[in-house]
TrEMBL record:
GO biological processes: isoleucine biosynthetic process; L-valine biosynthetic process
GO cellular component, one term: acetolactate synthase complex
Any one GO molecular function term: flavin adenine dinucleotide binding
The protein's required cofactors: thiamine diphosphate; Mg(2+)
PROSITE patterns: TPP_ENZYMES
Species name: marine sediment metagenome
SUPFAM superfamilies reported in the protein's UniProt record: DHS-like NAD/FAD-binding domain, Thiamin diphosphate-binding fold (THDP-binding)
Record keyword DNA damage present: no
Domain Thiamine pyrophosphate enzyme central: residue ranges: 2-115
Domain Thiamine pyrophosphate enzyme TPP-binding, residue spans: 176-325
The name this protein goes by in its record: Thiamine pyrophosphate enzyme TPP-binding domain-containing protein
Family as reported in the entry's similarity comment: Belongs to the TPP enzyme family.
Keywords linked to the UniProt accession: Metal-binding, Thiamine pyrophosphate
């Protein structure tokens, strides 16, 4: 499992050599994601976070490269049967939250160069098939939803329609709770920084979508930038659209508007019951009109057939744009179930 240490080390070649030689299935997270494309045959991203959580208890050895064990990784406690090798440039990370059996302190790229000289060529394709047979059924319904036009709009379907509208050629910035889950799993990173998901584990914070989208467009002005935002998290820094308009920084923000703090609302429903939902419902808010009022482009979308044309009009507007899509408020992501499970067992 690789994390931001891979992104900072600029060690794409060394990492690919290591994976190719050892045959070890892998998952790259945070700014390490995309150092090897998600569609590599040994990548677990075809099953997303559930693939990783299903694979870890089946391993006898876990190697982490520049990665901190946070709550999404159950603080390293989800695979007690496995030996753990941790590589990190920061010595304080080697035994943080979970003691390592072997700790290597150093730059990820330099460490991989040395490891590549010592590891043996292996073929673990049969085990990779065993893993896929175990985890793909867990997201079978989600995969089916991507191809299914429903009303209200399922967030997994919305991700798929965004890819269709952009011809899957964009820098994607993800921000939200349940929204982050569906976007992180539905999108595939083709290179580093092509899928930026700060709220999904890197900082564990909300509100980064619009500011990061502005930053991505300034850094890569020739690339289309699409921000995928939950409606709650959009409210944190929505006024940065004013910054984007003032400085003529065009990008497209697609809001997954489930009319609630979805992760919080569904957590309350699961723990306390639907009659005890408190301060987590937002209602239908016309965020697209806020963006229009600031001088940007805005559209409201309520049906599946409107999604692709609206996003393409936003792309063609040449302005900072907001496409506000009403999504199914009843959909709960596996990330919410993980969060609620952790809260109720502590």
């Amino acid at each position: 499992i690789g994390g931001s240490g891979i992104g900072f080390s600029d060690c794409d070649k060394e990492l690919l050599d290591f994976v190719s030689k050892t045959g070890i299935p892998f998952m790259l997270l945070n700014t390490g994601r995309g150092a090897i494309p998600d569609e590599h045959p040994l990548s677990l991203w075809d099953g997303g976070q559930l693939a990783m959580l299903a694979a870890l208890p089946q391993t006898d050895l876990v190697i982490t490269l520049g990665l901190r064990f946070n709550w999404l990784l159950m603080h390293g406690q989800g695979f007690p049967q496995a030996k753990l090798v941790r590589v990190d440039i920061d010595a304080t990370e080697i035994d943080r939250n979970r003691s390592s059996d072997i700790g290597l302190v150093g730059d990820i790229g330099l460490s991989l160069k040395e490891l590549n000289r010592r590891v043996k060529q292996r073929d673990l394709s049969s085990w990779m098939k065993t893993l896929r047979d175990a985890y793909l059924p867990l997201i079978a319904d989600e995969i089916a939803q991507r191809e299914r036009a429903t009303g209200p709009i399922h967030p997994a379907r919305l991700v798929e329609q965004i890819k269709k509208a952009t011809q899957d050629n964009a820098i994607y910035v993800i921000d939200g709770g349940d929204t982050s889950y569906f976007a992180s799993v539905g999108l595939k990173a083709k290179e580093k920084s092509s899928v930026i998901s700060a709220a999904a584990g890197l900082f564990g914070c909300l509100g980064t979508g619009v500011p990061f989208g502005i930053g991505a467009k300034v850094a890569k002005p020739d690339k289309l930038v699409v921000v995928i935002n939950g409606d709650g998290s959009f409210g944190f820094n929505a006024m940065e659209f004013d910054t984007a308009v003032r400085h003529n920084i065009p990008f497209v923000c697609v809001i997954f508007n489930d009319q609630a703090w979805g992760m919080i609302k569904h957590g309350q429903e699961l723990v306390y019951g639907p009659e005890r939902v408190v301060s987590s419902e937002l209602g239908v808010v016309h965020y697209e009109k806020v963006v229009e009022g600031l001088g940007g482009y805005g559209e409201l979308v309520t049906t599946d057939d409107e999604i692709v044309p609206a996003i393409r009009r936003a792309m063609d507007s040449g302005k900072p744009a907001c496409v506000n899509v009403l999504t199914d408020p009843t959909v709960t992501s596996p990330a919410t179930l993980l969060l609620v499970g952790g809260l109720t067992t502590e």
